[in-house]
Every structure is written in C-alpha cells, then in structure tokens.
Amino acid sequence: MTLADLVPGDIATLEQIDTTDPGVVRLMMLGMVEDITVRLENIAIGGDPLEVGFFGSSVSLRKEQARHFKVSRILPGD
Amino acid sequence: MTEGTEIKIPVSGIRIRHKARVSIAVIGNPNAGKSTLFNRLTGLRQTTANFPGVTVEKHVGTVQLEHSAINLVDLPGIYSLDGNSADERIAVDVTLGRMAGTQRPSGLLVVIDATHIYQGLYLLEQLLELQLPTMVALTMIDAATASGITIDIPALQNALGGIPVYPVSSISGHGLSELKRGLERITAIKVPAIPASWPELSKTAQQLAQQLGADWQRIDVIQALLQTHPDLAGKLGQQLGADTVAGLRLKLFGDSLPAAAEARQRYRWVRNVIAEVQETAPLYMKMGVRLVRWTNRPWPATLLFFAVLMLVFQAVFTWATPMMDAIDGVSSELGRWIVTQMGHNALSSFLADGVIAGVGSVIIFLPQILILFLFIIILEDTGYLARTSFLMDRVMRSVGLSGQSVIPMLSSFACAVPAIMATRIIPERRDRIATIMAAPFMTCSARLPIYALLIAAFVPKQSVGWMNLQGLVLFGLYLLGILGGLGTAWLLKSSALKGPKPRFMLALPEFRRPNLQTVAIKLYDRGRIFLKRAGTVIFAVAIGVWVLAYYPRMDVAQYRSTLTAAQTNNQAAMGNAQSAAQMSQSWLGRIGRKIEPVFKPLGWDWRVSSAVIAGFPAREVVVAVMGTIYAVGSQADEQSLSEKLRAARWPDGRPIFTLPMVLGLLVFYAWCLQCAATLATIRRETNSWRWPIFAWTYMTTIGYAGAFVIYQVGSML
Lengths: 78, 717
Description:
The complex is a heterodimer. By secondary structure, chain A is of the alpha+beta class. Chain A has helices at residues 22-29, 63-66, and strands at 11-17, 37-43, 50-54, 57-61, 69-75.
C-alpha cells in the first residue's frame, strides 16, 4: 500500500521510500522520512494533488510522488 | 534662567540612538513568522534594496538595544541549505558569506515556529555547522499554547548544546524584551563544536577542513560531501582524489543518496528531541479550528476563493468612491482656483492642465490601489494564497504547469514585477519561463486606473442581482487577463517550452490571523511606491505632454479664422472650437495625426492613440496623458475626465468613445504589455533579451488584434 492509496482522514506510518525520483528526496528534506506517522488531510478536486499532515505541518504533493512512499495504515479515516 | 537652578531631565526620556556595528541574519522556514518578528523588532527603521546582481529583495533594519544597536538582514524563508530554488540559493549564499557585495553575518537569529519545530530544528541543525554565534527565537508561542503544545525550553536548550532559545509572541509582544537583551550579547554565544544531530558527518568534515587549509570551512566540506554544491564537490574531488571522496561517502551515507541520508539522519534526531521536550495535550477542536479545517476542504475552499475574488472587485469600486470623489473635488477646485487667480496664460495652463490634471488623474486611483493591496496582503498573511496553489494545481496542470505557478500569478494582480520574482520558487526553468510569460497578462494594479476610468464613464451604474454591473465588468476584465495568461502558458508549454511534467510539492501554511503591523507596513510601502511613481515618472511625462499639446500657439490670423469658422454666438462652443483648433495644430496634434492611421482600425482618434503610445513605458501614464490632453483641449474646466471622454467627437460629430471602441480599448489594455519595469525584470530573471522581446511583441500583437476584432465586429452590429 502506498500513500497514494489512502483516503482523507487515514493515519499511516511511512515504511519505505523509493528515492529514485528527485521530487521524493525534496519531500524527505521537508521531513517525510521513514517511521513517521502521517495523516492524509485532503485530496483536491479531481483526485490530485494530496495534502499530507505530519508534526503539525502540511505538505502538498502529487500522486505520482506519493506512489513512492510505502505505508501501513494504522487508523482508517472517516 | 537664574544661577543655581538645576534642570532635571528624566533619564528614561532620553533615547540615545546607537550606530549599528554588527549585522545578524534572520533566517528560518517560510511562514515561521520571520518577517513579522523582523518588523516588530525594527519597526519602520528598515530599508529595502536588492542583493547585488540578483532581484531578491534585501530587507535590512536596525534594532536599537539598550547599550548598542545591530543590523538585521531578513532572508527568504528556506527549509534546508540545499538550495533547490533561486530564493534558497540566495539565502544560503548570504548566510555563508558567498554573496559578493554582502558582508558575512556575524551571527544568526534562527526563527522557529513553536507549532512547527519539526522542520525548524532540521534547518537549525544544518545552520549550526556554520559555527557562527546562533540564537533561536521560538515564535508563535501563544498559538502553540492555544493548540495544546507545551515546549520545555530548558530541555530544548540542553538538547541544542546550550544555545539560547527565546520564546516570543510577535502579536502580544511577549518575550521581545528578553530577546532584545539576548541580541545584545549574541556575538559572545558559543555554539557546540559538534552539533548533536549527525556527529560523524560534522567530525569528518571538521578534520578534512583543517587538513585542506584555510579556504575550506566545515560547511564547505559538508556541502561538497553531500553534493549539494556541485562546484565544491568537484574541488574536493580534485584535492583529495575521487577514490578517497567516494570512500568517505560510502562510509557516511552507505548506498543512500547523500541528501536522503541527511534527511533520515537529522530528522531522526529531531524526532527524539521533540519526544523529549514537547508535550501535545489531546485537544478537543475549538469552533474556530474546526471552521478553518472545514474551509480547507476542496469544495468549500474553492467556493470561498471565488467569493473572496468577487468581494475584492466589489470593494475596489464601492469602498473607494467617497475618497476618490474627495480627491477629484480637491484637484479640480485647485485647478479652477489657479485659473481664476492667474487668468488664462501659459503658466496657469501648465499648472492646471499639465501638473494638476495630469498627475491628479493618476493619484485619484490611490484609494483603489490601496484597497486591492490590502486584500492581497491579507490573503498572503493568512497563508490563504499558498493554499490556493493546492486548489488550483489541477487547473494549472491542464495548461502544463503546476500549482506552484499559482502564487506568482495571483500576486501579479498587484504587480507583475514582484510576481515574476516570485517565480523563483519554481525549480524547473521551462515552467518558470512559461509562468513569467503568463504573469504580465494578469490585471495588475496599474491597469486599474484605465479600467476604472472607462468603466465609470461608459458602463451604467446599475445592479445585477446583488452585484453592480460595473464590478461585474471589472471581474470580466480580470477573467480576460487570466484566460490570456493561461492560454499563453498552454501554447508555450505545448511548443517551445515542452518538457517533462512538472512536479508539485509545497508546504502549506496553516491559517493564521493577519498581523496588523505587518499589513500596515506592507500597505504603506505599496502606497509610497505608487505615489513616488506619480511624483517622478508620471509627473515628467505629464509635463512633456503638456508642452507638446500647448505649443506652438496659434497666431492671430488663425485665431480669427477659427472664430469665423465656428459661426455661432454661443460663447462656450466658440471657446471649445478654438481650443480644439489650437490642440490639433500643436506638436502633439501633428504627431498624433501621423500615427492616427495605425490605430484608426481600432476606432481611436489621434488623442487616444498618442495617450496609448505615451503609455508604453508605464501604463498608468495613459490616464495622466488623457487628463492633460483633454484639459488643454477644453475650456470647460469643471468637467471631470470621464465627462470629457463622453463628450469627445470626431470632426464629423460622431462620438469617439462608442461601446465597441471602449470594449476594444479595454481588451487592448488587458493584454498589452505596457510596462518597462516588467520588461526589465523579465530580462534580469531570464538572463536573456529573447524573452522580454518575445513577450512585448506577442502581447502587443494580440492586444491590437483583440481590439481590432471587437471594434470592427461591434461596429457592424
């Protein structure tokens, strides 16, 4: 399961990150690294981009990059 | 004064102004409250200039402390020292003393948002590698408390190796005096020799820097090893040998990418620190928070976005009217007073028609421009502008761009110059240039005067539902600009600038209440810039146009012949015929008639044509030029400019400003690039003449074509 498969409100842990996409490395610099807990906050109209929250911050990214983050869901959303 | 009288002056009444000796860089994440703190500390004692060679604004301000003063340099907000975008590279270059013409700071004031210490501490750990005296301002401490976050300050200081941390609230002013006392001793602060987040890297780099000699500092070695600075990486490879460097990298980063390894390593440390020092109370969501959360949802947010836009256009028209009427009243009264005091002569005409009618017709738009900027500044300050990029990413993708282009395009509603500079957040050059080409289409505040003038003169003041028609037409013109911009981006992205699909990633700031002082300072800045232009460029153009319109004067024979030609007993009609004849034989009239054929297909007479030509360096000049031309060319001084426009006639008596002509003129204004400052900025930002020349030619062509089609088709109907 990847970040792109979550629905709004889902809480999940980032497990494994594929860094072949330079955009993914940029997201890691914003703090999206392995072992943190994230919450999928919103999905924009049309299904893309996503808004992900962690440690009080919000980051927006496209599904294309979200697919590189393997996650395990710990709490399903609304 | 009698002998022996003592004069007592209360000591607290004397304020000694110290001269600033040291310069401290203020650095932090975007939206960490850096600028608010900067404004709070320096007040209006700040200057704005550009860093040499680049167009990034350099804000420098002086803080008066008890025993000394220091200069603060406000830098663009960054998340890391890796320099992914142009803004980040500049912040990094200034901090590291690599920016030519800017002194290396003597210390760092790192601003960390107490509600976002995760990313703040990451940047701080990178900055500690610089080995400069560093202190931390933990901002928005009251917001943190309100949302149930408590931070153990002594524990945090301890985790950071003893560097001072000052909790502050720029809104209430809490903690500011302690921060100022701390700033007084900033240069004496000792930072830890080896920052705690990644000791292996720091130690390795420190040893190498000593081994390599004086032109290497620890941070240089780190950036070379992490490959975040290609030049340094190359230099290190040359000095140590490629194999040695590869071995070092393997030992430090394993098989990870260096940048990914750094993020993993330092963020792991940050997480541990947060677990130690921060407590988050489980919080029931307050009404306000829940409302903000709800408005962040896609549909409510999009609807809110359009509602706000409509409100802005309504406000620009309705709120500004009383103030504009007042300015108009004062300036026409002044003009009339001058003429009655001095009689009709060259000097009175110069003052009344040249200076007052010319410059006054531009200054009258100050209220509207301030209202527009007030909204834009508030949207920026609440973080709402950044959120729109999330909402609009999908739309932007359909023209080949990403949500990152939304912020520059929206700020282009204020002015294209800062908007073009704001494109620096876009990492890919092709996307950046497509955005730069689209930005000047957005309706900037300088277009507002001509729109407002023509709409007020030719669009009836009636309501359509809850809106008024004038506001609706203005909204339509804004849409026209947006369509022009998006269409252009799409054309470029599917031809000359074709490239890989742009990525989109952006930190979204939380909703924040705007800070009154920040809003006031920004608004004051904008108003000042506008008035300065009115007082210099527009003033000079208005005088030039007056000279061209007033001279040469008719001789007596010509004067008589116009009187006979008028063949009427009506005093006013004779006066007008006389002025018109003088006007048309003036230099401006002669030049105007030469260029009239070019614009005749658009339905413009020579007066409109020459005003438009004069407006190419700066579009708001057009209103000033029209003001002067129509003031010199009429006797009836009590008329407002819009009344004069309505009364303007072709020689055969047909009105010049017909509906198709006005609509065409508006379209021309919506699309034409009449702004030398924008062209110069495009030149600087793209580093070539090709793009400004292309932008000018392209926009002028489609502006002309649009006006042509509308006038010709409209006149046929």
